[in-house]
Each structure stands twice: as C-alpha cells, then as structure tokens.
Amino acid sequence: MKLHLLEKDKRYIWHPYTQMKDYEKEEHILIVRAEGMRLYDSKGRVFFDTISSWWCNVHGHNHPMIKEAIKRQLERLEHVIFAGFTHENAILLAEKLIQIAPSNITKVFYSDNGSTACEIALKMSYQFWKNIGKKKKETFISLELGYHGDTIGAMSVGGIPLFQEKFSRLLFSTHKVPSPYCYRCRFGKERDRCKLECIEPLENLLKERNEEIAGIILEPLLQAAGGMIIYPVKYLKRVAELTKIYHVHLIIDEVATGFGRTGKMFALEYGGIKPDFICVSKGITSGYLPLAATLTTNKIYSAFYDDYIKNKTFHHGHTYTANPLATAAAVASLKVFEQEGVLGKISKLIPIFHQEMERFKELPIIGDVRCIGMVGALEIVKDKNTKSLFPVKERIGWKIYKEGLKEGLILRPLGNIVYFFLPLCIKSDELYQVINRTYKILVSI
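Above: the chain's sequence. Below: its structure in token form.
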C-alpha cells in the first residue's frame, strides 16, 4: 500500500523540540507553499507565520530578489572548499557585514548556524588569551536563561535548565550570573526604578576572578529562548563597560536579534557598544539557506597571525563554510534592506504594534507585556498578584498553539510565554489581524 506523505512523515521523521507522542493520533502540518508572511498547507488552510519560521524569515517567504540571486548563483557555482579558495559572494557579503557592524569590527569568519557562530567566538576568545600568553584566562560568564545553541560548547554557556540539565556532565564549567528579568526581578525592584542591582553579581565576579575569565557572552536586549526577556539598554551598556575595565572579551550573540528584528540592524546599536565578537545567523539569509558568521576585531585576528610553525592558527572550519548559494542569498537580503528601505518602513509600524500589544494587559491571564522592535511577548500567569504560573501539566502553551492553528496563526509559545517574532514584510492590515486573532484566543483560555 502506498503511504501518504504525512504517514511517511510519522513513520520516518523525528522532529526537533517535539514530544512525538503528541502526534500519535494527529499529523504534522504539511506546508506546500508560502508567500510573504502566509503559509499554505496541503489541506488548503492559510496561516500567518507570526514567528518568522523559527525567527529567521526576515523579509517573508518567496521574495523575488533573494530567489533570483540564488538561481543566478546556482548556474555558476554551488559549492567550493573555503580553505585556500574564495568566491565573489563571500567577499561581497563580508564587506557588507563590516560596513554595517560597529567600527572596531574588521574580520568575518563564516560558518553555517547560530550554535557554531557562538562556539567559534568562544574558541577564538579562549585561544586568543593562549596566543598572547595569558594562559589562566580559560572560563566564560553567561546569563541565567541565556541561550546560544544546542551544541556542547553553546549549551555550556546556556542557562535554560530544560535544555541543559540532561546533558550537564558533558558540559564544561562556566560562571552564571542572574538575568536582568525585570518582571520577575529577584531583587524586588521595578523596571526603570532600580540601580541595576541585577548587575552587581557580575561586577563582583569580574572584580574577584577577572584573571581567569576569557569573556562574557550574552544576547543583546532580548533573551529570546529564555522567555523573550527584554532588558534595559543601561544593563547592556554597563556590561560593555565592565568588560573593558576588567579586560575580558565581550561576545554579543545577535543570532536572533540581528538584521532588523529590534528596529535596528543590530540590537547592540541601542547601546552604542563595540564588542570583541558578534555572532550572526538566522536572518542573515532571511531564512533561505543555512549560514552564519562570527565577526571580530583586528586585535583578535592579529593574535593568530604568525608563522605556521608557531601553531597560532585557528584550526576550525565547516564543510559548508561560506557556501556560494547561501552567501548569494545573504547579499541579496542586505540589498532588500537597502532598496526597500525596510528599517524605515518598520519604524512606522513598530509604534502601532506596541500600542496594540497594550490591549492584552486588560486580560486576567496576562501578567506582563513586553516589546522591542517587531518582537512582542505576553507572559501568561494564573494569578496577576502573585505572578504564579499555570501548572505544567495543564500545558497552557500547547493549548494556545492548537487554538492558534484554528485561527490561522502559527503561535509557538515558550512555555507560558506567547510571543510574536514578526517578519519585517508584515503590512498594517496583517498586523491587526494577527493581534485581533490572538486576543480572541487568549480571551477564551
């Protein structure tokens, strides 16, 4: 008997971040085509892609300029080793990235996903200190509830127990400091009415142990997978100041926040900071093909530049490093930003989006509403006064996800956090539809 595609899916595929038993009596959604922010499935249903297909689809689906760039490149060159060889799009993209990055950033090291972009920064930082003779600097600081990927090194500097605890014995030791989680401030303070008490543990740690610390890694202004935690610019700026005072590297993970998500090309621009490393992926190709890059300074680069015999070379690489098709998509994506004035367009939509998000505050199950750029989050609580959560067994996020599908929305809550990671191509009427449909769902929960 010939199996239907979805029967084959169930028979052969193990999906990520998915308890497969949930699909024992139902099927995954078979997407057959997409346009803009709309996804179309095999049953004729239409869904608004409110999470940009895992936060990467910046310009929407099927953008003609990006598709054409990939087609042109496919006629010329599909892949080539990137050690000792190079190609046009890798060069053009590196130039573009340096132009939009802070002025101290001068070098681009390519890889193929966000986890590896972060691991490369960690390894470069670690080896940098070895190369210049500071051999005690071997550990890193990261934030509780931070997320930097699912490979071993990236998990080691992550702080989400659900993702890390089962693999704890595989991970290397790092220092964790409190997240600047304003809604659930462990110091009992209120946002914008505090003295940044949450940064004191970091400051004390750096003061006492800076000689053994290589660097600190953090997501700028938005801890995404940790619960869409949006924190003050002054916290980011103070972290940057401390890394300069205590001579540790500042690694900024812009994998989720980069390429317009927060209203600026990079979230770090809000603080005007100049980190030692910037990690990018996801939106770099607008989700069309896998690609990542680790951006760094000439100071870092120079510490590896020497006679080969001295073994200061950075021995790291990936088969698909700077893939010609992926870099073609990335160059085209950056051209879309320029030619369509994307950041200017969303600057007009952002205030409307944030204003519409305020409507949710009146609902009894919404404890907190937070926004930055085209990212918004709603924290679901059982009791507003105590900020208590619904029991895990009630699976409130799963219920919202299922109701969202009925309303033509791709909502994929992070536990008790309902969020939007809206594609930058969204139109005002689409924005209102997304908000209204979500409001209808949450009123009924």
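The mean pLDDT is 96.
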